[in-house]
Design goal:
Chain A: It comes from Microbispora hainanensis. The complex is a heterodimer. Chain A is mostly helical. Helices cover 72% and strands 4% of the residues of chain A. Chain A contains 15 helices and four strands. The relative contact order of chain A is 0.18. Chain B is elongated and about 95 Å long. The chains are: A mainly alpha, B alpha/beta.
């Protein structure tokens, strides 16, 4: 058992690319679901259209990087309006149905053979991150403390990522302290009451959907840039459900819960995964467990952990137990 | 002093109704709400079919009727929570048909709900603040600059505190609204509606589910609304309450307004008795009615004989 490797990879996972991407996606979900009560089950599509918007602009059409970012942002906002306009006047479940279906449509269009000249089919797109890394202020080398360090490219991606997370958290903090956030939380509790007090509920729900999508879309950009490639299957429905898991793990409607939730989620996955595979190769586990099925066992164990958390701490890490008690009344 | 003004407002409201006809749709001296030919159908069922009705400004008007008379549907129509199939209605001369609920509220016509809608996970204070109109901080971009809305928020908080004091909820200021009792929630909902600054307050069954100990205080608050110059229209089943506080009563049955009148005599109106108890309750048939039925039956028989021949 190489405890040192397990320790190093686990600590790196707590601030690594996945944590950053999922934290941004989860901050978006937290605005939509945690504060406004909108069931957006298509967060993966928001990240997907942003990542592809940028990648396709640069790699397929050879246009500048910043234009790619703008097109990715515009695509996210257009998607939010497309999904929101027909559904946000209806009951909450309609948004859930439409978004989960739309996310699959988006993914299948990206991987379709028909459009492979644009989106690159299931291989996706590469060669679009050059301009981003050209801006890298870090000179070649490794940065970090001892073994817990990253090369200059990863350091650059993580720096941008954590700055974006800080900005997003600051934004959520300011908004949710304000009367704007109050209207959002009230809509989560009862739309009709908010309508009877003279607030345009549809407009606020739309704003929440767009804002959550836009914050998530920065996660999409980073995902693509960090891996220097995009593939359609990165943006499958599991992605959205992991983001929801992270929000609930941290505690819905709390500013930092998506960030801490994402870190814990990835630390758990990496720690359990690495420990299991080390244990298998050291022959410490019964022969039932092999290198091939260890990935599934990892998710079972993490799932079990999350179940225990929900049983013993249903409000999540940052949640307020009194709020959960109100639901039981 | 207070008693005097109560008497005068009450007297003024009652005086306005003096000498009015008891017919449905009777014109009022100074109507704030005028409804014309509002119809709402659910498939084959006509839930609301109101020909004409007016609500007098500065009065407390009760809307009563047996279960299923369409009172709540009518309420939903007027406040924009449901769309009417036909008809029109004006509030202060302004056409409201087709206007969404939030704009109806902004126009000054604010409603409460039969099943109280306290926003459970917001504190009592936040519930109150939400009611205030034209808040700068409710704009997305201004919300990011606390300095731009802080002063207005302080004013709103002050106004909310006064109202909470009046409704005896000041001690609950920082509790979650979900932790209040049923009656306290009704009080909160009414206080929150007042934060909007309404001219016409529409209360949908304000007494439903309220602890009898709180009833008197709630009644007092409704009367206070009139004293402050507001108009109240409320739906209620409790006839004691209707008699106690209303100045005028509108009776609905099977979707239509069937009678209007002052609260002390309305319940003896034969149309109202019919609506509540059914048209052929135990009143004996008069001689004319008997004769009429007999003739009808004979005429029917004759026509059948002619057909066969």
């Amino acid at each position: 058992m190489d405890w040192n490797t397990i320790f190093v990879t686990t600590v790196k996972a707590s601030i690594g690319l996945e944590t950053v991407v999922y934290a941004l996606a989860a901050i978006g979900v937290n605005i939509q679901f945690g504060y406004a009560g909108l069931l957006n089950f298509g967060q993966a599509a928001f990240l997907g259209v942003a990542a592809y918007g940028m990648a396709v602009t640069v790699a397929t059409f050879h246009l500048p990087f910043w234009l790619g970012i703008l097109i990715g942002l515009a695509a996210t906002i257009v998607l939010a309006f497309l999904l929101g306009i027909p559904t946000l006047r209806l009951r909450a479940d309609y948004l859930a149905i439409v978004t989960i279906a739309a996310a699959e449509i988006v993914r299948l269009v990206f991987r379709s053979v028909q459009f492979s000249s644009v989106f690159g089919g299931s291989d996706g797109r590469q060669n679009f991150s050059g301009d981003f890394f050209a801006m890298n202020p870090y000179s070649p080398g490794t940065y970090g403390i001892g073994p817990i360090s990253f090369n200059e490219r990863v350091t650059w991606v993580l720096t941008v990522g954590w700055v974006l997370i800080a900005i997003a958290c600051g934004l959520v903090y300011l908004l949710m302290k304000s009367p704007w956030g109050r209207v959002l939380k009230a809509i989560r509790e009862d739309e009709d009451a908010v309508r009877s007090l003279g607030k345009n509920v549809f407009s606020y729900k739309m704003q929440a959907l767009v804002l959550g999508g836009v914050i998530g879309c920065f996660g999409g950009f980073l995902f693509a840039l960090g891996q220097a490639s995009v593939q359609p299957d990165l943006f499958s429905t599991e992605f959205t459900f992991y983001a929801y898991t992270i929000v609930i793990l941290g505690g819905a409607a709390r500013v930092f819960s998506p960030v801490v939730g994402a870190a814990i989620f990835w630390v758990l996955l990496v720690f359990v995964g690495n420990t299991l595979s080390e244990a298998v190769s050291a022959g410490l586990l019964p022969s039932l467990f092999t290198v091939n099925n260890i990935g599934a066992v990892r998710f079972m164990l993490v799932g079990l952990g999350l179940m225990l958390l929900l049983i013993f701490r249903p409000q999540g890490i940052f949640g307020d137990k009194r709020e959960i008690a109100l639901d039981a009344r | 002093m207070h008693a005097d003004t109560t008497q005068s407002r009450k007297a003024a409201a009652v005086a306005a109704f003096a000498g009015l006809d008891r017919e449905p749709g009777v014109p009022k001296p100074d109507p704030i709400l005028v409804v014309d030919k509002v119809v709402r159908r659910f498939g084959g069922l006509t839930a609301v079919d109101v020909d004409h009705v007016e609500v007098q400004r500065g009065s407390i008007t009760a809307l009563i009727g047996p279960n299923g008379a369409g009172k709540t549907t009518f309420f939903n129509q007027l406040t924009g929570f449901d769309s009417a199939d036909e008809g029109s209605w004006t509030f202060n001369g302004k056409q409201l048909k087709g206007m969404p609920a939030h704009r109806v509220a902004r126009a000054g016509m604010v409603r409460t709900f039969q099943l109280t809608k306290a926003l459970s996970k917001l504190t009592v204070m936040e519930n109150m603040r939400l009611g205030a109109q034209n808040q700068l901080g409710e704009n997305f971009f201004r919300a990011l600059i606390p300095g731009s809305w802080r002063r207005q928020e302080d004013e709103i908080t002050e106004r909310a505190e006064e109202l909470l004091e009046r409704f005896k909820l000041a001690a609950k200021r920082d509790d979650f609204a979900g932790s209040l009792s049923g009656g306290q929630r009704k009080l909160l909902e009414m206080a929150r509606a007042l934060m909007v600054g309404p001219e016409l307050v529409m209360l949908d069954e304000p007494m439903a589910g309220v602890n009898p100990a709180l009833t008197q205080s709630l009644l007092g608050h409704v009367k206070d609304l009139r004293e402050e110059g507001m108009t109240v229209l409320f739906v209620e089943h409790d006839m004691d309450m209707v008699r106690d506080i209303s100045d005028w009563v509108i009776v609905m049955a099977q979707g239509a307004v069937i009678a209007e009148g002052p609260p002390d005599t309305i319940m003896s109106d034969p149309r109202v008795v019919d609506a509540y108890l059914g048209a052929h309750h135990d009143a004996p048939m008069s001689a004319e009615e008997f004769e009429e039925q007999l003739q009808e039956a004979e005429a029917e028989l004759e026509s059948e004989i002619e057909e066969k021949a």
